[in-house]
Write a structure and sequence with these properties.
Distance between the termini of chain B: 76 Å
Radius of gyration of chain A: 19 Å
Number of helices of chain A: 4
Shape of chain B: elongated
Radius of gyration of chain B: 37 Å
Structural class of chain A: mainly alpha
Distance between the termini of chain A: 37 Å
Shape of chain A: elongated
Largest sheet of chain B: 2 strands, antiparallel
Strand order of the largest sheet of chain B: 1-2
CATH architecture of the domain at 594-740 in chain B: Up-down Bundle
CATH topology of the domain at 594-740 in chain B: Four Helix Bundle (Hemerythrin (Met), subunit A)
Number of domains of chain A: 1
Helix content of chain B: over 70%
CATH architecture of chain A: Orthogonal Bundle
Low-confidence stretches of chain B: 705-711
Mean pLDDT of chain B: 81
CATH topology of chain A: Helix Hairpins
Strand content of chain B: under 5%
Number of strands of chain B: 2
Structural class of chain B: mainly alpha
Number of helices of chain B: 34
Order of helices and strands of chain A: HHHH
CATH class of the domain at 594-740 in chain B: Mainly Alpha
Largest interface: A-B, 78 and 90 residues
Low-confidence stretches of chain A: 105-109
Strand content of chain A: under 5%
CATH class of chain A: Mainly Alpha
Oligomer: heterodimer
Mean pLDDT of chain A: 74
Chain lengths: 109, 802
């Protein structure tokens, strides 16, 4: 699982370092997935029943990271949506989604 | 907190009140409120004289940071007391003088007096602290207040320049002094000067001794304007004249001398100290007096003369340090140099203080300080002329003024260098009396210029801005007091100063020579027969008069020095280069590209996390508690990896978005496997919405040009990304394997039903236990929604306009 998270982070970083706005946003999306899984993994996986008292189990999975992740998912959605619309507007106004060109310099390094 | 501490910080506390006085009583000059304070302090410190006279030391400690050995230890001994009396005494006179010098209607008096009190408190702190760190703090505070006071008329270009220059040079010295202090601490394990002195024998063998010595001397030399750091002092003359009289002649510039005197017992064991202090001092003496002659600004002359007089005292202290190589006082011929240093310190404060005030009066009453415009003022300002004459003749070393006495002792000290037979002094020793004599000739010349070019000669009313007249009485009081001291000290040096001030101060500088019974018997003679010193003085007068009269003929000498090679040029160039250099340096990595910054952030992330992982030995992989890996997990993991990696190589935006969606859905499946049904549900919903949003947003966008679609491989980015991936993997593994404390989750598991009456723990945590979190989460979403709404609305509005 840790390796999966590592790969997610790797790809996300690479994407965020690219020039296209869309790829950056996709990168942040992947990064948040990675972070969520990291949180979940840290608490240990697959121990006990789902954290519902109705299950009447001996052991429950740790509910705290799940609560945190739930918050994080929603927040990351909000951020992604905001980014998206921002990128869209920027594209509409400036006609490019290349952040180098947005600075007014030439995009080809 | 004892009364002594209170006395030191009293000016600082009092400074807080100044603005209220200024605001509340606009019609009364603010200076009148300030004046009582230094007088009170002077009287207070005066009461210590009987204590220090019997070679006792008053120590009061106030704990500050005891764990680091940093305490505010106030120590009153002979040397500290001498300086404290100078600071408060001259301070009182200067404030009295400033009341008449600075107009209460035009000047921002509250600023001026706040800075001045700040300086006074800081300076008292410097001379009365036994702890080196506390002393350093006060030391820098004096630099700051000096900066503020030089830049008091900040609308003038030259004031700002002078203020910056003094700040840069003195703070540079201060920092190197801090280095020296820390080195001393490393050697002795103490910041207390008293303790360090007791360990002087140990220190001298340490390899850190020489670096510490040089660092401390740098601090002292920059503060006391020794060559080649003297260049800030002439520019500091842009300050109001009371400030020049106070900071830049009587007190602050003597802080370096104080430091040298104070640490003489520590460092003087080594010949290098003697060499450096004495030779820098004597050269500064010569260079300062030589440069003073070519100045045309009265304050410029005084500035260079201060530089040279400081050099004189410094060289005396250097030579006097040789006396520590004797065990007792008998046949110790170098004590006289140290005695002369202290004596001249007092004399210099009196005559230079009065001279500065006289120049201030001339400036105030005529509107100029340029000696080429001045002349013939004798008839208009007889009292000022008398004062100037007393001060200048004392500076030139003529009887019956106190300068004569210390000058004679100075010659004695320098002549005795010839007899010095250690530290390989013999070959260069002859330079000391020669330089001393030459410098005295120049001192004589500029003293004469100061008096006679200003007060005699042709009166040139057309060049003056105002019609000159005698200064008001209030302005004359302070210089009159100082000038009368000049004369009084000449006639009664022994009864006034020897036992009360000089001998206790000597005991602080040369503690190893103090004996219980005798102490230092300081005796100053007005007349000691026809000896070499007297002939030297006679020679100075004769040659000085000759050269003064022929000044126009040899003035050309100064043109021989090329303008480009002066130290000021060097300083200006260095400052400018430092500015452009640091600008270029910053520009080289702050290039304004967000991507570069991201690279820095990620690189930093990798380096910090990886090093701390290894350094803390946190890296460990514990497989014992790993969950079993089933076929589903393997499949899903593969799916995520494939999807994620193929995003990198996806050609079109559409496929990128779809692949991102695939990753998201797989993650939600993972949540199902990992016993997190709520997460899985949320993730599913969110993923669907965001993929839809992605598609909506980018569906309409026109096709990008082909070449921008191509994914170009970038090595740096790839390396950074792989690094981040590896570090995160390691952290995930280690986090899984290291458990330092038990999770607080058990609390939630136990209390969910009882306290919140809910059965879904995750939900209960979100809406109940951590309700505020969720509230703010909603707020964040609302803000994002508002932002999105705003952006879309903006577009609609734009369209309607079109």
């Amino acid at each position: 699982m840790s390796i999966v998270i590592g790969i997610l982070f790797m790809v996300a970083t690479y994407l965020m370092l690219s020039k296209s706005l869309l790829r950056i946003i996709v990168g942040t999306g992947l990064l948040s997935h990675g972070a969520h899984l990291l949180l979940l993994t840290m608490s240990g996986l697959k121990r006990g029943a789902p954290p519902l008292l109705g299950e009447n189990a001996e052991n429950y999975a740790d509910p705290l990271p799940q609560a945190l992740i739930l918050t994080a998912i929603v927040i990351s959605f909000g951020v992604t949506a905001f980014f998206l619309v921002l990128a869209y507007r920027a594209y509409k106004e400036l006609g490019t989604d290349n952040i180098e060109q947005m600075r007014g310099t030439k995009g080809n390094e | 907190m004892s009364l002594l501490h209170l006395a030191i910080v009293a000016p600082l506390i009092f400074a807080i009140l100044v603005p209220f006085f200024y605001k509340g009583f606009r019609r009364i000059h603010t200076g009148w409120f300030i004046l009582p304070l230094p007088i009170l302090l002077f009287v207070y410190f005066f009461s210590f004289i009987s204590t220090t006279k019997s070679k006792e030391v008053v120590m009061k400690t106030l704990d500050w940071i005891p764990s680091l050995g940093i305490n505010f230890t106030a120590k009153v001994d002979g040397l500290g007391l001498l300086f404290a009396l100078l600071i408060t005494g001259i301070g009182a006179l200067v404030i009295l003088y400033s009341i008449y010098y600075l107009s209460k209607d035009k000047e921002k008096l509250h600023n001026f007096y706040v800075y001045l009190l700040l300086f006074m408190g800081a300076m008292l702190g410097v001379v009365l602290s036994d702890n080196l760190i506390v002393m350093y703090a006060f030391w820098e505070l004096t630099s700051f207040s000096s900066f503020l006071l030089i830049g008091y008329w900040y609308h003038r270009e030259k004031s700002r320049y002078g203020a910056q220059k003094s700040m840069l040079i003195t703070v540079f010295g201060g920092l190197s002094m801090l280095g020296g202090i820390i080195l001393l601490y490393l050697m002795t394990g103490s910041f207390s000067i008293t303790e360090i002195i007791t360990q002087a024998d140990v220190i001298v063998t340490s390899p850190l001794f020489i670096p510490a010595l040089i660092c401390v001397l740098l601090g002292a030399f920059t503060k006391s304007a020794q060559f080649p750091f003297h260049i800030w002092l002439p520019d500091a003359m842009e300050a109001p004249t009371p400030v020049s009289a106070y900071l830049h002649s009587a007190t602050m510039v003597k802080a370096g001398i104080y430091l040298v005197a104070r640490l003489t017992p520590v460092f003087a064991v080594d010949g290098l100290w003697l060499w450096l202090v004495a030779s820098f001092g004597i050269f500064t003496l010569f260079w300062g007096s030589f440069s003073a002659v070519k100045q045309t600004d009265l304050k410029g002359i005084l500035a260079f003369s201060t530089v040279s007089q400081l050099g004189l005292i410094m060289s005396l202290l250097g030579v006097g340090a040789a006396s520590l190589h004797y065990d007792g006082l008998d046949d110790n011929i170098y004590v006289v140099a140290t005695t002369a240093a202290i004596f001249h310190l007092i004399n210099h404060a009196t005559f230079k203080g009065s001279l500065f005030m006289v120049v201030g009066i001339i400036d105030h009453e005529t509107g100029t300080r340029d000696i080429r415009k001045l002349g013939g003022l004798l008839n208009f300002m007889p009292i000022t002329f008398t004062l100037a004459m007393i001060g200048a003749f004392s500076m030139a070393g003529l009887p019956p003024f106190n300068g004569f006495l210390s000058k004679e002792m100075f010659f004695t000290g320098m002549l005795r260098v010839l007899e010095m037979d250690f530290f390989s002094f013999d070959s260069f020793a002859i330079l000391f009396p020669i330089l001393a004599w030459v410098a005295s000739v120049f001192t004589f010349i500029y003293s004469m210029i100061l008096v006679f070019k200003t007060f005699t000669g042709k009166y040139q009313p057309e060049k003056l801005e105002k019609k000159p007249h005698e200064a008001p009485l209030g302005m004359l009081i302070s210089p009159i007091i100082l000038a009368s001291l000049v004369i009084i000290i000449f006639f009664f040096p022994n009864s006034l100063l020897s036992d009360n001030l000089i001998s206790p101060a000597l005991a602080s500088i040369l503690p190893s020579l103090v004996t219980e019974e005798t102490g230092f018997m300081v005796h100053i003679y007005q007349w000691h027969g026809f000896n070499p010193e007297l002939f030297m003085t006679l020679g100075v007068i004769a040659v000085g008069i000759l050269l003064y009269l022929t000044l126009p003929k040899w003035r050309r000498v100064y043109d021989l020095f090329p303008e480009k090679l002066t130290l000021n040029r060097f300083y200006d160039g260095a400052v400018e280069r430092a500015q452009t250099g640091s600008f270029k340096f910053t520009k080289s990595f702050m290039n304004g590209s967000i991507r570069s910054y991201l690279v820095y952030i990620f690189t930093f992330f990798i380096v910090i996390l990886a090093t701390s992982l290894f350094y803390k030995n946190a890296l460990k992989v514990d497989t014992s508690e790993l969950a079993t890996i089933g076929i589903y997990e393997v499949l899903l993991a593969l799916l995520i990896v494939i999807a994620a990696v193929s995003i990198l190589f996806a050609k079109t935006r559409l496929s990128q978005i779809i692949l991102l969606g695939a990753v998201g859905y797989t993650v939600s499946l993972f949540y199902v496997l990992f016993r997190a049904p709520d997460l899985a549900l949320t993730q599913l919903v969110i993923e669907t919405v965001s993929v839809a949003l992605f598609l909506v947003c980018f569906y309409h966008l026109p096709k990008l040009r082909k070449e921008e679609n191509r994914v170009r491989f970038k090595l740096t980015n790839a390396v950074v990304s792989v690094g981040v991936g590896i570090v995160v993997t390691l952290i995930a593994l280690s986090a899984h394997s290291n458990k330092f404390f038990s999770s607080i989750s058990q609390y939630y598991i136990e209390n969910t039903y009882e306290k919140a009456a809910g059965k879904n723990m995750v939900n209960v945590i979100l809406v109940d236990f951590r309700g505020f979190d969720t509230l703010f989460e909603i707020a964040v979403l609302a803000i994002a929604a508002l932002g999105i709404f705003g952006m879309i609305k903006l577009r609609l509005a734009r369209r309607e306009e079109e």
